[in-house]
Design a protein that fits this description.
single chain, alpha+beta, 8-stranded mixed β-sheet, 4-stranded mixed β-sheet, 8 helices, 14 strands, globular
Length: 367
């Protein structure tokens, strides 16, 4: 009996090239989920995808968390190889978009959506920070994509995944507020003028930190984009969510060096999971790090990207693959099992290990 189900993995790539048409930076947004656990399934896919594209296309690649849940964990390493190959093959071949809008923000309650347009391509980033946030329901991306299409936009929607203490669930009201804020941003983007832009990028491997500190092998990736009206930065850290309050501190630090605005995102890598004795079984980005020096390191990387600014153009591509994913029924069985174990032994490191054992069995039978 198969423990997996078939799911559609949708991936979009927004890339930027320089004067010599060489790649400067890319944002890869996909609905795969980086799980279920450590390097099982797609747990380490964000950094794998980053490395694969950087080796073949050059430039600094960011793979922030798309809107997805554990139901879309890719279970087969053969399918993961297919996705890596498809990303290389479908990397934008043309970069004909030469104008961009400024970055704007829309807010509805605790939901904050930033947006920037590149021709008819809209890049949206969602956060609830400083409120807690976890995986967003896929209905959010579905509604936003529908609304974007009616306005003539191809849209990339990022779950910034950047504020966590416990294990919250997104409420229906929060999902509704996110969609409302996103639609508001799309309407404003439609009316905004666009100008030529410059792009710079930089990377820091964050070698001083490791998986037990909550930092994956993808390290820190920065994209800075300058238009006539503002200079903004997109920052992605290879980790699973972020210590509550750190996102705002990073954004303010970036503003202090003259960058108009920024968004800070994590990849949701699950390589960090189950390595430390903590209530979550891992440390969100910043929870185990010296905050002041870590923020300084990020700000210095942004400065390096600013120093590398050059005239740029953008391209976009997308592809879809049918793959074997964990699915709703299997995921619910796993979480139910872990819940029963947790109730018996209390909150401890052991429940993570017990859950991983069952997941290993799942992967063994599926692949």
């Amino acid at each position: 009996m198969s423990l997996s189900t078939e799911g559609s993995i949708e991936t979009k790539i927004l890339s930027f090239s320089g004067r010599d048409s060489g790649p400067i930076a890319s944002l890869v947004v996909s609905n795969f989920h980086p799980g279920p656990y450590r390097d099982m399934g797609s747990g380490g896919l964000p950094s794998e995808l980053k490395q694969s594209l950087e080796e073949t296309q050059r430039g600094v690649v960011q793979v922030p968390h798309g809107i997805s849940s554990h139901k879309l964990n890719i279970v087969s390493h053969r399918d993961i190889d297919r996705l890596l190959s498809a990303a290389r093959e479908n990397y934008p071949s043309e970069h004909l978009i030469r104008k961009a809008s400024s970055m704007i923000r829309g807010r509805e309650g605790e939901a904050i959506v930033s947006g920037q347009a590149f021709g008819n391509v809209a890049l949206l980033t969602i956060t609830l920070a400083p409120e807690e946030m976890e995986d967003l329901p896929t209905v959010v991306s579905g509604e936003i994509e529908k609304e974007a299409s009616t306005r003539g936009f191809e849209v990339l929607v990022i779950d910034a995944h950047n504020s966590l203490v416990g294990q919250p669930s997104i409420t229906p009201l929060q999902a509704e507020r996110i969609i409302t804020a996103a639609v508001r941003v799309l309407d404003r983007l439609k009316a905004l003028s666009q100008d030529p832009f410059k792009v710079g990028s930089a990377y820091d491997a964050l070698d001083s930190y490791g998986l037990k500190d909550g930092i994956g092998p993808g390290g820190l990736s920065v994209l800075v984009l300058k238009t006539e009206s503002d200079t903004v930065s997109y920052i992605t850290i290879d980790g699973n969510n972020m210590q509550q309050g750190l996102r705002d501190r990073i954004v303010q630090s970036v503003k202090d060096i003259g960058v108009s605005d920024a968004e800070v995102m994590t990849t949701d890598t699950h390589l960090v999971t189950g390595l430390v004795r903590s209530p979550l079984g891992y440390y969100p980005v910043g929870a185990a790090l010296p905050t002041a020096s870590f923020v300084t390191q990020i700000t210095q990387t942004v400065q390096k990207a600013v120093a590398n600014l050059e005239e740029s153009s953008a391209g976009v591509s997308k592809f879809s693959l049918q793959m074997q994913v964990l699915g709703s029924e299997t995921f619910q069985s796993i979480t139910s099992f872990i819940g029963r174990v947790a109730r018996q032994i209390g909150r401890s490191f052991l429940w993570i290990e017990s859950g991983s054992f069952l997941l290993a069995v799942v992967i063994l039978f599926v692949v």
